[in-house]
Design a protein that fits this description.
85 residues, mainly alpha, elongated
Length: 85
């Protein structure tokens, strides 16, 4: 592989680690769901860089788009308690 692809893979992996940590540390559920979608999108980019475009498309469609939309819809459908922090 060329050095540019290796650098991009390294940056994507660093982004995956950062977004996974953001999912854990965000207190707001909407922010955590969006960070999870970003993590899934970076994972699909990693699959594409590893020359697995069919897996990348499936991960982008299901992981980044559909799952994030379902999580946000479910969070918006619930009611927040005022005393909960």
């Amino acid at each position: 592989m060329s050095e540019i692809v290796l650098i991009i893979q390294f940056l994507v992996l660093i982004g995956l680690i950062l977004t996974a940590l953001a999912v854990v540390f965000f207190k707001d559920l909407i922010s955590a769901a969006i960070a999870l979608g970003a993590s899934s999108l970076l994972l699909s980019l990693q699959f594409f860089l590893l020359r697995a475009p069919d897996v990348a498309i499936a991960e982008a469609a299901v992981g980044a788009a559909l799952t994030t939309a379902i999580f946000i819809f479910a969070i918006k459908s619930t009611e927040r308690k005022e005393g909960y922090k």
